[in-house]
Amino acid sequence: MTDFERCVLRLPATAAPALMVVIDTEEEFDWSRPFARSGYSLEALAELGRAQELFEEFGIVPVYAVDYPVADNPDRTEALRGWVAAGRAVLAAQLHGWVTPPFDEPVSRTNSYQGNLPPALERAKLEALVARVTDSFGIQPVIHKAGRYGIGPATPGIIADLGFEIDLSICPSFDGRRDGGPDHTRYLADPFRFGPGGRLLELPSTAGYCGMLSPIGNPLHGVVASAPLERARLKAAFSRLGLLERIRLSPEGHPLSDLKRLTRKLLVNGTRVLTFSFHSPSLRPGCTPYVKDESDRARLLRTCRDYFQFFRDELGGRFATPLEVRDALS
Within a 10 A sphere around the Cβ of 133, how many other Cβ atoms? Predict the structure, then answer.
C-alpha cells in the first residue's frame, strides 16, 4: 500500500482527550475458514441493543460501520435505523468485498483486502455499498471503513469521488503483508489529512506497542512474530516480561489493564484522539474467537463499561463522534 501523503493533526494539549466508539457491524462467519460469498448469518444484529444501552448510559453516540449484507437486510436493522434517525448513533459504510456485488473477482484472502482489487472493481463495489446503505437507512454515508483495514492506493480517490469525508481504515502497527494485505506500521494513532486536495480526514483505529522495547516495536514485533519464533513462544514471553506487547484499543482479546496502559502511553506521547472498537458478532456467543460463551460476553461488556468510566472519570476525557472530532480539528 502506498504511504499516503498526509498532514498529521492533534488536538491542543489543553483539550480533553476524545474517544470515538466504532462497531464493525457485519455478518457472522467462521473466521477459521476461507472467505465465502454465502453461508453467513446475521443473528448477532439482534444483540446490538445490549451495546447501545451501555453506550447511552455514558452519553456515547457510537459509529456503526455497516457492510453490504447488513444494509441488504433492513428487516434486521429496524432498531439501528431508529437510533441513527434519532441521532443516538452515527452510520459508516464498511466494505467486505467478497459479499458485495459485483462479484467479478475470485474469492481469496488477497482479494478480501479491497485495495488489492482492480480500481474499477473497487469503485463498483463501493458504489453498490453506498447505494444500498443510502436506500436502507435513508442517509448517504460520509464515513468509510475498509474491511480488514484493506485500504489501497486507489481507495482515497474513489471514496472522495463518492462523497466520503472521513476514513477509519488505518490501524497503526498492523502489518498484513504475509496475508497479502497492507502494511500500516508507518502510521501513528493521530488523525491526518490525506487524499485528493487533502479533502479526507483519517481517524485511525487506536493501536500501538507497550513495554520497554516499544520504541522499536514495529521491526522487533515482525521478528518475534515470525513462524519459528512463535513456535518457541518467544512472542508470549516478551509480553509476559513487559518487554513488548502490541495492543489494540478493543475489549476483544485485551483486559482492562492493557487498555489503560496503552491509553496512558498514547496520552503521554501527545495523542488525544482515540478509537475504541469491536465487531458486532462478538455480542453473540460463538460468533467470534473472542466471545465463546455467555461469560465471555459479560466480560466484554464489563470491560467496555469499566474502560468508559476510566476514560471519563480518571482521565477527564469526553466521548465524540467522528464528525465532532473533524470539527474540533478544523
Answer: 23
